[in-house]
Amino acid sequence: MIAETLNLELTEPIPEDKLKVLNYAQGRFFTEGFYKITMDEISKELGMSKSTLYKYFPSKMELLEETITLLITTVKGKITAYIYDDINAVEKFVMVIKMLTATITKFSEKFMSDLQHHAPHIWLKVDETRKILLYENISKLILQGQKEELIEKYPPQLIITIITGAIRQVVNPDFLISSKFSYNEAVNNTFKILLNGILTAKGKDILKKKKLF
Fold first, then answer.
1. CA–CA gap between residue 29 and residue 27 (Å, rounded)
2. Environment class of residue 44 by beta-carbon count within 10 Å: exposed (0-12), middle (13-18) or buried (19+)?
3. Is residue 127 very low, low, confident or very high in pLDDT (cuts 50, 70, 90)?
4. Which residues are CB-neighbours of 185 under 8 A, at least 6 positions away?
5. Which of 43, 67, 87, 211 is an S-S bond match for 25, by CB 3.0 to 4.6 Å?
């Protein structure tokens, strides 16, 4: 059974008060974790009435989910821009990697631990959503790279499955909390291994000459 995904379609502008709460929640939740932060505390810190806060977010879990959705929506927009940029597939890959790394490093160990223990259902939604985003966008990069003779002619579906599977296994609360690697090390080394396994000599030359890592 496929897990429910996050709704990333913004059909209308976010009200100013709501965006204020989301930005505040991103700053605190991602840094300090969310479990011990109360809705009362948030309303006091923002100088906002409880009625206004609860109008937009009936519960802290809904606030958490929308906070993560806003971040993923932003990431999705950046990935789309990279995909359609007029540069080679290797450079696009590295731009996506660096953007993903910058995103992951927003999450403290406390936040990841809170997700694991107190909101695993939300992590499942995040995981399913990123799986779809990665599959859709990395498939475009693989096909472009093969046309440019920068990526070996392995079956595209196999490459995509291996890459998305590796990312999902490495960038998850269980692994990041239990491993000795920093988020940067985990993401960068994973992609270095993957890229060096699929790039042609020409592709590796671009990677080396441009010092992309």
1. 6
2. exposed
3. confident
4. none
5. 67
CATH architecture of 66-209: Orthogonal Bundle (1.10)
Whether the model clears a pTM of 0.90, i.e. scores above it, the answer is no
Do residues 32 and 110 touch, judged by C-beta distance below 8 A? yes
Give which of 156, 117, 102, 94 is closest to 35, Cα–Cα. Answer: 117
* Alpha-carbon dihedral 79, 56, 2, 80, rounded to 10 degrees: -10
Both tokens of 30, joined, read: 């991602």
What are the angstrom distances between the C-alpha of 6 and each of 47, 55, 59? 29, 20, 17
CA 51 to chain centre: 32
End-to-end C-alpha distance for the chain, whole angstroms: 38
How far apart are the C-alpha atoms of 130 and 64, rounded to whole Å? 17
Domain residue limits, the chain: 66-209
For 97-118, write each residue's pLDDT tens digit.
Answer: 888 778 877 888 899 889 989 9
Backbone angles phi, psi at 100, to 5 degrees: -65, -40
Query: How is residue 2 annotated by DSSP?
Result: P
